[in-house]
Amino acid sequence: MRILLWHVHGSWTDAFVRGRHEYLLPVLPEGGAWGLGRAGRNWPASVREVDLAALDADSVDAVVLQRPEEIGEVTRILGRTPGRDLPAVFVEHNTPKGDFPFTRHPLADQHTIPIVHVTHFNRLAWDNGSAVSTVIEHGIPDPGHLYTGELPDLGVVVNEPVRRGRVTGTDLLPAFASVAPLQVFGMKTEGLAVATGIPTDRLTPRGDLKTAELHRELARCRVYVHPMRWTSLGLSLLEAMHLGMPVVALAATEAPRAVPAEAGAVSADIDELLRCARRLVANPEEARRRGAAAREAALERYGLGRFQDSWDQLLADLGSSLSATHRPEERILVPARERKTP
């Protein structure tokens, strides 16, 4: 199949485009959210950058939507309406914002585009109405068992921890820094020491490293800390588990399902998490043993093969279900994107 999708969520896309299809990624000269293309990623040759305005509409077999505005964009430029005359599915990456647990999904109650949630918690948390919804859990390209744990540090991966604050558990970092020095990886980690009051000798912002370097450097840390309060299941957590790292995670959203007890600790009791982190830092052999359990669990539930098989089945069903689910009287009410066409 030739599948159209925007490069929105880099880590999820990294797994998705390693499948058995041809993937068409819109690109614009200025890049940005609507034209990122491959963005220099080392992806298979089956991933092609395309000028959406010049794309032959009939060459697209299906579209994987990730933002409601994409429905109107595809209709306007290609002249084919997702869910009507173009097989389509909507991937929901995020936990709901706003009036939880009453937050309505933008595609709630329509019957032409199925909603695929990346975690069971997300499906439960969103009000999908009568829309068809399902779950395809994350898949991770296995980076290998790289864990050394040679540094008695705690590793954290979080993007924009200063701006996102309590959402990402940034306020919890000083407590963890009292246990062991922190290495914090991710975008816009500068200014984190000032924002949290953590002494610079207890916190090292590592910035946004390339994937291979991130895996190598993160795997040197003794323990992985996942302090997220209200984010969808972070792929960095699953990557750390694949690396063979022991995990100390806040028991929020999907983390209790993803992290088995033998991999470390999952709890809403911060003191319990701190005790476990302290014990693992002081006991490298226990840390290594629990990291091996984390890797085993991650490979079983979040392996790339299972992820690709699930998506292949869903994509195969899209075309055949299009005519069966078509209801001419229905309208998909989503906001149009306001921007000038380049």
Automatic annotation (TrEMBL):
Q: Which InterPro entries match?
A: Glycosyltransferase_grp1 (IPR050194)
Which GO molecular function annotations are given, in alphabetical order?
A: glycosyltransferase activity
Known SUPFAM superfamilies for this protein?
Answer: UDP-Glycosyltransferase/glycogen phosphorylase
Sorted alphabetically, which keywords does the UniProt record give?
Transferase
Its protein name is D-inositol 3-phosphate glycosyltransferase
Q: Which organism is it from?
A: Pseudarthrobacter enclensis
